[in-house]
Each structure stands twice: as C-alpha cells, then as structure tokens.
Amino acid sequence: MRSLTAGYRRRAVLHDLTAVVPRARHTVVMGANGSGKSTLLSVFARLVRPMSGRLSLPARCALVVQDGPSAQAMPITVRQVMAMARWKGPWRPATRHDRAVVDRRLAELGVLDLAERQFGTLSGGQRQRVLVAQGLAQEAELLLLDEPATGVDEAARERIREALAAAVAQGTTVVQATHDRRAALDADLCLTLEAGRLS
Ligand SMILES: Nc1ncnc2c1ncn2[C@@H]1O[C@H](COP(=O)(O)OP(=O)(O)OP(=O)(O)O)[C@@H](O)[C@H]1O
User: In sequence order, what DSSP letters do the residues of 53-114 get, joined into one string?
Assistant: First the structure.
C-alpha cells in the first residue's frame, strides 16, 4: 500500500499508510482500541474502499472476523459453517476433496468432534477455533484474522499459532490484528497503528 487513506463515509480512519506486507509471511497489526486495525483488515478484504492512495492485493482473500452475537445467532451446524468456506456456487456441490479439507482444518484446530453441533451452542473459544478453521479452509492467498485468539485458553491459542505457522509455511500470506504480544514476537513483521497512522 502506498499513501493509503481510508475510512467510513467521508471520515478518514487510516491516514497515508505506506507499507509492504510480505508474501508468504506472518504479519501482525497492533495498536490501541480504535487505532484502525479492523478497518485496515476490511480494506485488505475489499469491504472498505480506499479514499486515496494505492493498494495491490492478491485475487483471493479470506477474512476471519471477531466472534459476536450475529455469528452466534446463525442456526447452523459447525459443518455448515465450514461448508460456506468451500462454497463455489449453487450448481457445484461439495466434493470429496472439499470434505477432506474441512475435516483436516477442524482436526488441526482440535474441534473435529464438534462438527455436528449447532454453532451457537459452542463456547466462545470453541467458536473462535471453528472460525479460524473456516478461514483456513478457504485456502486463499491472503488470510486476514481479526483478533483470532480473543477469549481462547492457552492450549487453543497454541493450536491457532501452529495452524497459522503451517499455513505460512505452505505459502499463505497471513495478516492478523492482535493485542497478543506473544503473537507479535512470533511474526515476521509487526505494523503498529497509532490513531490511524503507522508508527
Ligand atoms: N462501520 C464503521 N462505521 C463508522 N466508523 C467506524 C466503523 N467501524 C469502525 N469505525 C471507527 O473507526 C475507528 C477505528 O476502528 P477499528 O475498529 O478499525 O479499530 P481497532 O483498532 O480494530 O479497534 P479494537 O482494538 O477495539 O478492535 C474508530 O474510531 C471506529 O469508531
């Protein structure tokens, strides 16, 4: 991104950001509440359009949003949440390969045994792991995660760390917004936002 400015309606939240996010590496975005981390991920996910500046993005990206009431209210099973990750259109049913990818990702995050459960009945940490598995199952070039380790215990956090490291080793570019200093230490690059500017 070069001289990137973005925000909502006419109000800029991110100001004049210039940085290179390295391909097939793990980048973390840190900063205080309201500094613009989620907004930056939304720009990368093409949900928020830049007001000015330049941005070059890979074709396919996946976004793991923060768990919240709307996710919990979905009346669907974990397996159906995962099916969304592999959805290719109404006339293209899931293949054996799709099912294998889903099972592998659920197992990787330690939640395969929850596959038939209603998503909304899981604990917060279990839902969070399913959402990370859903992001990974999309096999996108760019994987964006908004505070994926919020509310998860140390063992689950470790699973998420390992799963993201494995994805990076396989060529995925991972960008993660986090308040977790440990995640920042493990990352290849740390972008720090202060009131919408890179510091
Ligand atoms: N949909 C929206 N419409 C208008 N303003 C928004 C919207 N989303 C975020 N903002 C504003 O943009 C600014 C940055 O918010 P953002 O959610 O990007 O910060 P953050 O660093 O992710 O915060 P947190 O650590 O609390 O998740 C805040 O002032 C916020 O009020």
Answer: EE----S-EEEEPPP-HHHHT---BHHHHHHHHT---TT----HHHHHHHHHHHHHTT-GGG
Q: What is the mean pLDDT of residues 37-55?
A: 96
Cα 122 to averaged position of ligand 1 atoms, centre (Å):
27
The model's pTM is 0.93
**What's the CATH number of domain 2-198, 3.40.50.300, 3.40.50.2000, 3.40.228.10, 3.20.20.70?**
3.40.50.300
The model's confidence at residue 140, banded by pLDDT at 50, 70 and 90, is: very high
Residues near ligand 1 with C-beta < 6 Å?
8, 13, 31, 33-39
4, 5, 13, 191: which to mutate for ligand 1, most atoms within 8 A of CB?
13
Q: How confident is the model at residue 172 (pLDDT cuts 50, 70, 90)?
A: very high
| Closest residue by CA, ligand 1 atom 5 | 8
Task: Specify the residue with its C-alpha closest to ligand 1, atom 3.
Answer: 8
Expressed in angstroms and rounded, the spacing between residue 83 Cα and the centre of ligand 1 is 29
* 20 three-state secondary structure: coil
Q: How confident is the model at residue 55 (pLDDT cuts 50, 70, 90)?
A: very high
Report domain extents, the chain: 2-198
